[in-house]
Amino acid sequence: MTTQKQPYRCVLSDPPWPEYGGGKSKRGADKHFKLLKPMEIAAVMHAHLYSGPSVEGSTFPSARVDRLGCHLWMWVTNSWLPSGINVMSLLGFRYITNLVWTKPNFGLGQYLRGQHELLLFGVLGKLPSMSRSKGTVVAAKKRGHSVKPDEVYEVIEAVSPGPRLEMFARRRREGWDCWGDQAPEAPADNVTLLSSDGG
pTM of this prediction? Predict the structure, then answer.
């Protein structure tokens, strides 16, 4: 759902990277939603950020970014980090830095058990930060699958001006437009924290 009247100056994206869980139990993101390959992610995002031709099967409304200055915050899994930076570049954004969300409990992993998520930050055109007091690490508990912490939104809102759009949204936040297969129509209520054994 979008209410856009001006070009977006801040975009947050949580793409459905192709993380398929292995083994006997289905543990990947495909258990929760349809996954896309990196070039499909780039195509869907490009079509909607730049109001290009619609992507077959897409139900997302068109949006526009401010080509003179826009920030892109994009979640990427460790396995798809190089592809995440490539997608950002294909969308016309310069990769600048990243924010790390650290969690108190271990997750899954083949070599090392994951305990963090990466949020890439890039800039299109020229748009300085509204704040230079924010660091690159947010420590917060995990909440439901793919639910990102409010503390991360607070960093984004301090650094990047509006209007703001969340792509591949799974909940709504006041002051943001959002779209995605799982995007709700109304602002999200408080999300229950997972128990300590749930992440």
Answer: 0.80
